Amino acid sequence: MKSSLILILVILAGLFLVPVPATPLDGVPTMRTATPEAVMPGTVMKIEGEYLDRQHVEKVFLTDGKTDYELTITSQKAAVVQAKVPEDVKPGKFFLMVLTTGSDGMLIEQPVKVKVVAGPADKAS
Question: What digits encode the pLDDT tens for the residues 29-86?
């Protein structure tokens, strides 16, 4: 009994000592940065990361957890996506989110924040 308890504790301790890779999982889209960090509706932003090409990413969104806005992808490569912010996005703070490709595509919220600021049309109203 005592030896099995020790074995269990050694196994559990080993789980916490296994190094976790700092790189993204193979083929899983990961966004690292978005520039500019503050954008106006209608402008194009540059998003950098890994696995962002057409083979891995079908669509890119801004999300606040309640409302999702699809960005228009203007350029797409493995490490860089350029996408236009829709005109109808209201000012606020959003996370980027991707829809992966394939019949089992998944929405994956990214750890990158973007601030949408009022554009010229918003200021006039």
Answer: 999 999 999 999 999 999 999 999 999 999 999 999 999 999 999 999 999 999 999 9
pTM for the full model? Answer: 0.76
14 φ, ψ to 5°? -65, -30
Domain limits at 90? Answer: 27-124
Is 119:92 a contact under the CB 8 Å cutoff?
Answer: no
Question: b/e map of 80-116 (b: 16 or more CB within 10 Å)?
Answer: ebbbebeeebeeeebbbbbbbbeeeeeeeebebebeb
- Name the DSSP letter for residue 72: E
φ, ψ for residue 27 (rounded to 5)?
Answer: 85, -5
Domain membership flag for residue 115 = yes
